[in-house]
UniProtKB/TrEMBL annotation:
Belongs to the iron/ascorbate-dependent oxidoreductase family. Keywords: Iron, Metal-binding, Oxidoreductase. One of its GO terms (molecular function) is oxidoreductase activity. The keyword Hydrolase does not apply. InterPro entries: DIOX_N, IPNS-like_FE2OG_OXY, IPNS-like_sf, Iron_ascorbate_oxido_reductase, Oxoglu/Fe-dep_dioxygenase_dom. Residues 183-288 form the Fe2OG dioxygenase domain. Gene3D superfamilies: B-lactam Antibiotic, Isopenicillin N Synthase, Chain. This is UPF0676 protein C1494.01-like isoform X2. It comes from Lingula anatina.
Length: 332
């Protein structure tokens, strides 16, 4: 049995131990059999439920804890201070602060009861950084750390798909290594404020409404409060309970198009779980390069080719995050 075997339970969301391929190791140090086993496990998870818990990933816990602390510091500031960093309504793909009640994925329901701060360092965006000590430096460093894990997961996805050259997938994600103007890969700091249903929440309001994520894959760092629910293959929602030491990796909605539906992007949401308690998470949205022409990797005509920027804008529009007059050149 290889080091990677025996680590998966596919009864619900699998837990996969990637110690054999964690971000501290060079690829030439990794046994090929371990890589193939991990790739098969990842493919099985992403072709069925679209979610996986990853443990022994190599990201230091103290680095994760530090970013949670910095996020706490930002959200604890007076509202008028946070408002200085508000992201423009006309630019949902940009950066900055999103206050409570601003964002939703279900147009017929109240906006979500959450607030967030999005960071895209090194890109074309005019990123404004709060004056919190070490905020910019540590967030940028964490962004780079997350990129390493995303590239590992994309490598395993490529192997699991049986691509002759996994670089075909990795080559579309150069923004994870060389931050340029074609990057929309985003680190989101999220907080779900404490509440009482009677006093604070509108009937029908969610913490985060039902959706799939944009892009390629998402890394989700949860606290211990819970509330994330994932749609099962039977169409029911079930809790994705936080597991200490793990990162939830989510397959995003570009991947089914890219893989002729061999991989699955699954609906999920965040619901009230513990009244009065605050919930926190860190979310790393991994996007392909903006200039990427996305077409099925198997050479089929399952989906027509589309430029990633156009696909992304159409997703914003279809979900009500952009108005008709805001599509503009970004959809070209």
């Amino acid at each position: 049995m290889t080091a990677a075997q025996g680590n998966c339970d596919f009864s619900w969301i699998p837990v996969i131990d990637i110690k054999a391929f964690d971000i501290t190791k060079e690829e030439n140090e990794v046994d090929r059999n371990d890589l193939e086993t991990l790739a098969n496990d990842v493919f099985k998870a992403f072709s069925t439920i679209g979610f996986v818990y990853v443990k022994n990933h190599g990201i230091p816990q103290d680095q994760i804890d530090n970013i949670f602390r910095l996020a706490d510091d930002f959200f604890a500031q007076p509202q008028e201070t946070k408002n200085k960093f508000i992201r423009p309504l006309s630019d949902p793909s940009g950066i900055g602060y999103i206050p409570i009640g601003r964002e939703t994925f279900e147009a017929d329901k109240p906006a979500d009861f959450k607030e967030s701060f999005d960071a895209i360092p090194g890109g074309a965006y005019n990123q404004l950084w709060p004056g919190i000590p070490n905020f910019e430096k540590d967030v940028v460093e964490f962004h780079r750390t997350c990129a390493k894990l995303s590239l590992r997961m994309l490598k395993l996805i490529g192997m699991g798909l049986g691509l002759e050259d996994q670089n075909e997938l990795l080559a579309c994600h150069t923004n994870l290594v060389n931050w340029r103007d074609n990057s929309s890969t985003t680190l989101r700091l999220l907080t779900y404020p404490p509440y009482t249903e009677k006093e604070d929440m509108t009937p029908g309001q969610a913490r985060c409404s039902e959706h799939t994520d944009y892009g390629s894959i998402t890394l989700l760092f949860q606290d211990d409060i819970g509330g994330l629910e994932v749609q099962t293959v039977a169409g029911e929602y079930k809790q994705a309970t936080p597991i200490p030491g793990t990162i939830v990796v989510i397959l995003d909605d570009m991947m089914p198009r890219w893989t002729s539906d061999r991989l699955k992007a699954t609906l999920h949401r965040v619901v009230p779980s513990h009244k009065y308690n605050r919930r926190r998470s860190l979310v790393y949205f991994t996007h392909p390069d903006s200039s990427t022409i996305v077409k099925p990797l198997d050479g089929s005509d399952t989906y027509p080719p589309i430029r990633y920027t156009r696909y992304l804008t159409e997703q914003y529009y279809s979900r009500g995050l952009l108005g008709e007059g805001q599509r503009g050149d970004v959809a070209a």
